[in-house]
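Dear all,

This email documents one entry for the complex benchmark we are building for the journal club exercise. For each entry we list the sequence lines for every component of the assembly. Then comes the predicted three-dimensional structure of the complex as a token string, followed by one or two observations. Please use this as the template for your own entries, and keep the labels exactly as they appear.
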Amino acid sequence: MSSFKKYLLWKLKTSALRTVLFTVLAVMLILPMVSEAVDYTHSDISYSSCGISNLEILLGILCTVIPIIELSGFKNRRNIDTLYFLPIRREKLAAAHYISGFLQIFFIYTVAFFATYAYLTISTDWFALGYMLPYYFLSLLVGLGIYSIFAFIFSQANTVLDGVIFCAAWIFVVYLVICGIQECIIESFINSQYFFNNRFAYFLRDWGLIYEQLDSLTVIFYDMIEINDPRNNSYIPWIMDHVYMFFIWGAAGIAAAIGYFITFVKKGAEKAGEISDTPFGYKTLIPVIAYLAILLAKGHVISISLYVAMMVIAYVVYRRGFKFKKSDVICMLCSIPAIILSLIIGS
Amino acid sequence: MIEIKGLSHSLGKKLILNDIDLTLNDGSVMGLVGINGAGKTTLLRLVSGVYNADAGEILIDGVPNSEESARRELFFLPDDPYYTTYTTGKNLFDMYSVFYPQMKRETFEQYMKDFALDSKKPIRNFSKGMRRQLYIALALSVRPKYLLLDEAFDGLDPLARLAFKRAINTLVEENGTSVIISSHSLRELEDFCDCYALIDKQTIASSGDIAERVERFCKFQLAFTREIDESAFDGLPTVSVEQSGRFFRIVLEGRADEMSSRLEALCPAVIEQMHMDFEEMFIHEVEKRGYLK
């Protein structure tokens, strides 16, 4: 057996206890919610009460948390000393951790999913459960994309804390950028009435959130799973017209997976524990989020003051002290035009 | 054989090692010495493949150390190995045996028994020295062809040091293992290293056979009946002179018999040759380079 296979098996073996604990926890949380849902009358149930949305939330959480757990060992220089000298190529080490993480997600999600499936099958005939299987496979595929994105983002950081902050920030940053463009530029300076009434604007905004693909998939499948859905969900054909959004996020997932492997192989072990100077980290996130938050405050002085203070705190976290670099000071000073623009928009 | 050719590496913007050339022959035990921050750990990390070199190459039996096959022959014991709250000796053995199939549980357990350690207990309950012994037991169980040890004596009590040195000697004799060991305990290194490499100013400042190198120096204690000062030794290849009244302790670079006769010419009342060890040689080497003065 190759060193890769042996290492992967060892990884799975050592994470088995954690996986089982997570699985038990997931099932314990989901089943009571589903059980409560089937006590409702048929007309009251929604996709959020039949358990599918719980599964969606579970998958979203797993795809965010597991890469952090799986890769946090590489943010510790002492651990790197004991791992990188081993006779296994970095590509294989990266692959072993990537596969091990996703297999853990697969196991937890699969058990929780089929526990829900079994419960619904036994307790009610309201659902066309045959549609749950394609939903299961497609949600796993979407989950793989989300997992890859978080694996890539986390791999960019040099410490666990930085990695967690980057992951948290990237959940909202695309959404914030779209909101900023829509509300502060298009709405304020071009054609506010048109954009306010344009459903596509809101659609695009929602799709800026990393989890929206999972949510939309769930909405589509719920419509098929629940027999005789009493609601007229006009959102479904709307999503189906924009199915390309799944492919855009899918492409982002593939790019992230490639980026993860490149980062893992090329990034020097000596970076572990150092300041995270990646373009996917503080360097970009702080100014982008701060400027957009200031613009979106639309002249509200208290909010603007708060955002400026938060920007300074973010730079302190970034530099682990008050030793700012010239580029940090320039970025902080550049918030002045953003404040002026915000005041103009607000007036 | 480990061959290091033109190796350079920087950490951030700081150049740590510059154009290093070094060879470790099979069955040799090399002491890697240098002042704090000289780059000993960086060199070991580069050889073990933890760091990728900025320039140059490291060949293990002619194969670049980036290759799995080359690293299968090598084991690196870092200065402060990582462990989690629940890590036990048994866990570590299980992990390392994935990569080193030659590891035998009985051998490991025997070493653990020798060090009076329990492989089932979490490492967090161990003292620094006990943790060091556990990792040494692992390293010895691997029986690698090349063993890299960073600050290996750190935290070990005198008995454990002795046991460790004996175990290394046995490994070298039985397995033909080559060892690179970095340490500040130069007296310990002298006991079982046959060669050394001194890192200074980003490069290998001096290297070679320890005994040969030490023999290049000699140390004498002298007493005079008359008042003299250090200038009396001008013209001699002095490395250091310590004066206490009419007593002198002098280190010279050169053969002891030749130096002795040149000192006799100064008519001392007493002249006595003293033992010169590796640590003293190291101190003189680094003093010569402008440190410690």
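Observations: Chain B touches chain A at residues 11-12, 45, 48-52, 66, 68-72, 74-76, 78, 80-82, 91, 94-95, 98-100, 148 (CB under 8 Å). Residues 158-175 of chain B form the longest helix (18 residues).
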